[in-house]
Amino acid sequence: DAWGHEVMLAADGAEARALIEVGADVLITDLHLPGLDGFGVIEHARTFARPTHAIVIAESWTAAERTRAAEMGLVWLHEKPIKMERLAQDLVTIARIQAGGGLDVRV
């Protein structure tokens, strides 16, 4: 992409699961993927030794989904339509964390 990173796209949860096995520094996923939902994709990503930060996008969030996200330690939750400025800010925060900096948590 324009920031010099490789972007891998998946049409559904099964494809995302396969791509995760290749490796990713950041996972941006829709919560309501066909087949395997975003939570399942993130759980699969966490089975690997390398930590993966996740940004989760949904049309809207139910109370139960927000609770599950909190229980999973997910802090970067977005609603559609995606605000690109906020997404960019979250990606910068994740880059800082990966470089050993602090965490700016927003739910």
What's the short version?
With 107 residues, the chain is of the alpha/beta class.
Write the layout of secondary structure elements.
Layout: H1 13-22, E1 26-30, H2 38-45, E2 53-58, H3 63-71, E3 76-79, H4 84-98
Parallel strand pairs: 1-2, 2-3
Mean pLDDT: 87
End-to-end distance: 26 Å
Percentage of helical residues?
25-40%
| Distinct helical segment count | 4
Beta fraction: 5-15%
What does this structure look like?
The chain is built from 4 helices and 3 strands; from the N terminus they run H-E-H-E-H-E-H. The chain has helices at 13-22, 38-45, 63-71, 84-98, and strands spanning 26-30, 53-58, 76-79. Helix 2 links the parallel strand 1 and strand 2. The longest helix has 15 residues, at 84-98. It is globular and about 35 Å long. The two termini are 26 Å apart. The mean pLDDT is 87.
Q: Descriptors for this entry?
A:
single chain, 107 residues, alpha/beta, three-stranded parallel beta sheet, 4 helices, 39% helix
